[in-house]
Write a structure and sequence with these properties.
Elements (H helix, E strand, L loop, with lengths): L13 E3 L13 E4 L6 E6 L19 E6 L3 E3 L4 E8 L3 E6 L3 E3 L2 E7 L5 E9 L2 E19 L14 E9 L7 E5 L6 E6 L2 E11 L11 E5 L1
Parallel strand pairs: 5-11
Antiparallel strand pairs: 1-11, 2-9, 3-11, 4-6, 6-9, 7-8, 7-10, 10-11, 11-14, 12-13, 12-15, 15-16
Length: 224
Amino acid sequence: MERVCPMRALTWAVLLATALMTGCSGSSGSATDGGGGAGTVDRDPTPAPQPPGGGSEPTPTDPPSVELASASDVVNQGETVQLTWSSQQADSCAASGGWSGSRSTSGTATVGPLDGSTTFTLTCTGAGGNAVAMLSVAVLDVVTLNWVAPTENVDGSALTDLAGYRIYYGDQSRAYTEELAVANPAATEQNVELRSGSYYFAMTALDADGNESAYSNEVVMVVN
């Protein structure tokens, strides 16, 4: 038997409401000295001084190194994150970006609450120069999808066995990589937690036999 799509997708549309919260990059909160993500390292050694008058050269000083890690690379809005770091050949460290202030050469700090995806930087200095470590922690934002339910089959008859929906989304138009099932046919709203980025959304409707409609209209949302 030929499979017939029972829903008329053009009779309904997905409407995207504003995000429930707005993220802001570079957010910082209180930090208290005490893995998940790990930071990148950039070493900037200071050239060894040259002896005057052509005397014997001093022993070169090794440049410092620093490692920075987070307990999680993604948190919910309003949560804190724990950062841990260690360094070698360093006399002092300083925090910048999503946190600030002088830091010991190794330690742990709880930073937050975070309002948006944040980059943390730690610069450690020693006799041999500077070393820099950076890492980013993403904050999940919430967007709300609203839609109007279909009422007809493709042949124009009344739709009496609507069973639910599927929400499709991804970072490219009509090339969705994620899907979310909505089992309640009476639902007209769904929250979706997302990291920062641009997302394209579309929906389909399902009947009691599992037949699926064509895609609805597509909407796009930018999450900060």
